[in-house]
Design brief:
The protein contains six helices and five strands. With about 170 residues, the protein is α+β, with helices and mostly antiparallel strands.
């Protein structure tokens, strides 16, 4: 007989609010600035790639495997505040993310989008970011709807390592 429970102990620090304790200020600004004194900062924060104006990072509480965020270094609440060169970099980085995600997970489709403002569901409404969520034909989100549970079959550390290796070079 199979165990009728899904154990997700990695979520407990999030539920307790413990994993946010080391951030003093905007999470996306802190990740964007990096830490020159800590060569493992990007790995700890799951920053997969950086470019001139944006960076790509794994969502630490993903909707699906490989859920990436493309985040401008500029702290603005909405994309219309970004200059053309940042918008261009944002979309070119999104294309690289799609390429890497296809290589690693071979998804059938993607959702790309932004929640602009708290009323739209933005968890960090003051810093614009673009979500890229891989999707598969058999993924109907029934576990989320029926059980209030998400099933993520790969560890964030493994996803991070695989996407960094598959990230297209310039």
């Amino acid at each position: 007989m199979t165990d009728p429970f899904l154990w997700t102990p990695w979520r407990m620090p999030y539920l307790r609010g413990e994993d946010r304790a080391h951030y003093d200020g905007c999470l996306f600004c802190i990740k964007g600035a990096g830490d020159p004194n800590n060569p493992t900062f990007d790995a700890r924060e799951y920053v997969v790639a950086r470019s001139a104006h944006v960076y790509a990072a794994l969502n630490m509480y993903p909707y699906n495997n490989g859920h990436l965020l493309i985040v401008p270094y500029a702290h603005v609440p909405s994309m219309e505040h970004l200059p053309p060169e940042v918008l261009t970099d944002l979309m070119l980085t999104a294309n690289k993310a799609l390429t890497a995600l296809r290589a690693v997970y071979n998804p059938h489709a993607f959702n790309l989008g932004a929640n602009i403002g708290a009323s739209a569901g933005a968890g960090i409404p003051d810093h614009f970011h673009l979500h890229i969520v891989p999707r598969w034909e058999a993924d109907t989100s029934y576990m989320t709807v029926i059980g209030g549970t998400r099933v993520i079959p790969d560890l964030l550390e493994d996803t991070y390592t695989q996407l960094r290796a598959a990230w297209p070079s310039e």
